[in-house]
Amino acid sequence: MSGHSHYATIKRQKETKDAARGNMFSKLAKAISIAAKSGGGIDPNSNFKLRVAIDKARSFNMPKENIERALRQAQGKLEVEEVTYEGFGPGGVAVMVEVATDNRNRTGQEIKNIFERVGGHLAGPGAVSFNFESRGQFVVRKETDSEAQMLKLIDLGVEDMEETEDGIEVHVAPEKLSEVRRALEESGFIVTATELVQKPKNYVSVTEPKEASKAISFLDALTEHEDIQKVFANLDVPTEILSKL
């Protein structure tokens, strides 16, 4: 949507800054270990979830030895539970939080506190997830003629795409992620990010600067929690408002 930034774009910009400071590596390592443990082994060729986790780690220039260490840890005892929380943040923004924790009660209470500090609240299963759909997501590097790129993507059969500040977002069915990425790269596209996401079906536009800042700070607080792997929200902020924050 021209002139607007969805939270997915805002989050990518934050992740890039966190990666530059080295703050992303522990989370990326945890994601690799969990994918290897729960997704079917340490071979990324047969474990699709692991392939996505490793590709993301590499996109943030995570050292090879860190990736290998995470895979070794997956072969040991990893008593971690995966949990998804749903809730509403400032301005009624719908939020889904994917967690990996060895203490569900502790993590759940800490997440509840983050929501409540800004006047939000956790909700029951299904209260938020109905407004999201599981998708595979690529970010393709934009060239000068982004319109021509998008036409080329349509020729490749891509039906769901959007131009953003940092590239062109391409969404596909999760099971087609590897197939479509291969087709994109063979056609000359440079894929800068690959991820399994929960894509909002509808967005909440926050146009008041103070409320937008409050919502983004709240979502940042969630992403910074050590047990939280991914945060998805249907927040939409006009670019001119975002530039003032």
UniProtKB/TrEMBL annotation:
GO terms for molecular function: DNA binding. Keywords: Cytoplasm, DNA-binding, Transcription, Transcription regulation. Gene3D superfamilies: 1.10.10.200, 3.30.70.980. GO terms for biological process: regulation of DNA-templated transcription. Pfam families: TACO1_YebC_N, Transcrip_reg. GO terms for cellular component: cytosol. Residues 5-77 form the TACO1/YebC-like N-terminal domain. Its main location: cytoplasm. It is found in: Cytoplasm. The keyword Transcription applies. Residues 81-235 form the TACO1/YebC-like second and third domain. Belongs to the TACO1 family. This is Probable transcriptional regulatory protein A2V97_01820. It comes from Candidatus Woesebacteria bacterium RBG_16_42_24.
